[in-house]
């Protein structure tokens, strides 16, 4: 079983993180996760490149999961996202 | 010559108990594994080039077996991808495909979408491209769907 703490540690070790949300979408079973990562490491990368990058960072963990989804934003995109939510 | 090679690999496989662990990565077995992957690789390559839109999913469009696969099918449906331009593969029906498509695409999850032979992404990417309009652009540019008709007035004409 993978814990959210494992995922967080792996992500933080790989890239600078502005904001991070990790959700166990398997109701506590540790099998399905959704992550939301905001990092300047994503600057200049299109969505596919960002997702492949995170797939690589979490390669071992994802291989053990039943499902994995991710949302990746740069700091600037995150600010825009927050502004839209506040509106 | 062929028979000798066959006998050798059979011998390697037949007596695993007497074979030390290091021999499990012997050249013969490693070659066998690579060979299977190459054939599967060629099959997938051909599949993604044969039809403009190819979706590897769990279940079928009429009976998806997973929420992510269902979402992917629905999104493509919303964009009106015609049946003859799309093909889906059910990885639950083919366990070799289920594993080999992950190696082929270097992508760990299902569903996986290919457009004109190029990997586009999984469900997350598809949904965000749908929301941003990027998916529509891609499908139009790839000749899968016609560009949107300019808005016409609803006056009837004789």
TrEMBL record, chain A:
<dbReference type="GO" id="GO:0051537">
    <property type="term" value="F:2 iron, 2 sulfur cluster binding"/>
</dbReference>
<dbReference type="InterPro" id="IPR002634">
    <property type="entry name" value="BolA"/>
</dbReference>
<protein>
    <submittedName>
        <fullName>Bola-like protein</fullName>
    </submittedName>
</protein>
<dbReference type="GO" id="GO:0005829">
    <property type="term" value="C:cytosol"/>
</dbReference>
<dbReference type="InterPro" id="IPR036065">
    <property type="entry name" value="BolA-like_sf"/>
</dbReference>
<comment type="similarity">
    <text>Belongs to the BolA/IbaG family.</text>
</comment>
<dbReference type="GO" id="GO:0006879">
    <property type="term" value="P:intracellular iron ion homeostasis"/>
</dbReference>
<dbReference type="GO" id="GO:0051604">
    <property type="term" value="P:protein maturation"/>
</dbReference>
<dbReference type="InterPro" id="IPR045115">
    <property type="entry name" value="BOL2"/>
</dbReference>
<dbReference type="Pfam" id="PF01722">
    <property type="entry name" value="BolA"/>
</dbReference>
<dbReference type="GO" id="GO:0005634">
    <property type="term" value="C:nucleus"/>
</dbReference>
Automatic annotation (TrEMBL), chain B:
<dbReference type="InterPro" id="IPR002109">
    <property type="entry name" value="Glutaredoxin"/>
</dbReference>
<dbReference type="GO" id="GO:0044571">
    <property type="term" value="P:[2Fe-2S] cluster assembly"/>
</dbReference>
<protein>
    <recommendedName>
        <fullName>Monothiol glutaredoxin-5, mitochondrial</fullName>
    </recommendedName>
</protein>
<keyword id="KW-0479">Metal-binding</keyword>
<keyword id="KW-0676">Redox-active center</keyword>
<dbReference type="Pfam" id="PF00462">
    <property type="entry name" value="Glutaredoxin"/>
</dbReference>
<keyword id="KW-0408">Iron</keyword>
<dbReference type="InterPro" id="IPR033658">
    <property type="entry name" value="GRX_PICOT-like"/>
</dbReference>
<dbReference type="GO" id="GO:0051537">
    <property type="term" value="F:2 iron, 2 sulfur cluster binding"/>
</dbReference>
<dbReference type="GO" id="GO:0046872">
    <property type="term" value="F:metal ion binding"/>
</dbReference>
<dbReference type="InterPro" id="IPR004480">
    <property type="entry name" value="Monothiol_GRX-rel"/>
</dbReference>
<keyword id="KW-0411">Iron-sulfur</keyword>
<dbReference type="GO" id="GO:0015036">
    <property type="term" value="F:disulfide oxidoreductase activity"/>
</dbReference>
<keyword id="KW-0001">2Fe-2S</keyword>
<dbReference type="GO" id="GO:0005759">
    <property type="term" value="C:mitochondrial matrix"/>
</dbReference>
<dbReference type="InterPro" id="IPR036249">
    <property type="entry name" value="Thioredoxin-like_sf"/>
</dbReference>
<feature type="domain" description="Glutaredoxin">
    <location>
        <begin position="53"/>
        <end position="120"/>
    </location>
</feature>
